[in-house]
Fold Rhodanese-like domain-containing protein 6 isoform X2.
Amino acid sequence: MSDTEGIDQYGVLLYYKYAHIPNLDDLLSFYHSNCSQLSLLGRVRLSSRGVNVTVGGKLSCLESHIEALKAKDCVFEGTDFKLATCDEPLNDRVAEECGFTSLSIRIVEELVTLSSHPLLKSPEISNAGRHLSASEFHSSLQNADQKSQGNGLVLLDARNLYETRIGKFHAPNVETLDPQVRQYSDLSSWIDDNSEQLKGKHVLMYCTGGIRCEMASAYIKSKGAGFENVFQLFGGIQRYLEQFPDGGFFKGKNFVFDHRISVGSSDTNVLGTCLICHRSFDDYSSRCRCTYCRMLVLVCHNCQNEAALYVCELCQKQGKSIQSMQLIDTGELKTPLEGAELQNSSSNATLSPQMPKGDGKMSGPLESLESYACTGFGRTLPVLREEHRH
């Protein structure tokens, strides 16, 4: 293959940068012009505190984008540009959910939302945990393996539950804390409720590409005495797997927020399991989601059914059940009855209802759950696009 052919391959570029942006409107105009000229698709989020970007396109165009950023402003000096070669999106549904069928550029208040409610003390990004390179992170786990109880070391996974279900770090004698949150904005509450597990410890944090650890590590350190020793994996799991292609201490696959869905190491062991039959399975390409909270769930090909509804493990723990939902004459889903006793559905995770037509007769399977009311959330939930995370 010639160099020209290689550089015209498709690729994905991920990067973020926390920095003061002196002229946000100017940067917005730059991204609109540059990304459009280079035919880049994906998500660009800008704020006065930095940028968070995931875009795809021809490798030559992505490299031109990087060079234009470096030439434009010293703000991007030292930015970790993660550029990976991959196939173009083949699944339109996945590409659309991940935002890879259009170019979305928006100005936002926060690059990532640490909390869904106002915090008593907002963290300063300048107080974020110290960066550890992939090799330093690996050495810390390796050395802890040789000492009893990890020498006060704990691993903190800053990702969502569905991500950790297909891959996570595991090191002997080192405790891994998995907050099991649906979304990143729930993490601060978990930290508040579990601060005693972090106090006085050496906390090693990790996420997909690093951005979620920046704010979360600063939030932990803002708690004061006993929370000084917080470290974060620079470049996230992505850079770690590049350094340790056999997986190292990371087991399974790294969930990514683009059409690739997940990226694995040379180790082919499957960490995830099917929600229904509990057999090994880690493929989210079917985009099966919980009926209640819309979180992604793993359902193997043998257990998938177009008419089936699924309840994630978090909703099961909260006592939510498919049996508590009703279908009404108009063909819309009705909220679970107020005051109804909800049964735990761990042994009956799916139900296959049919949608009534206007004449009251039953037709084919329920086609869409794009908007419905969910007890306990207090709002109408749409089908969620993947969070823009690294």
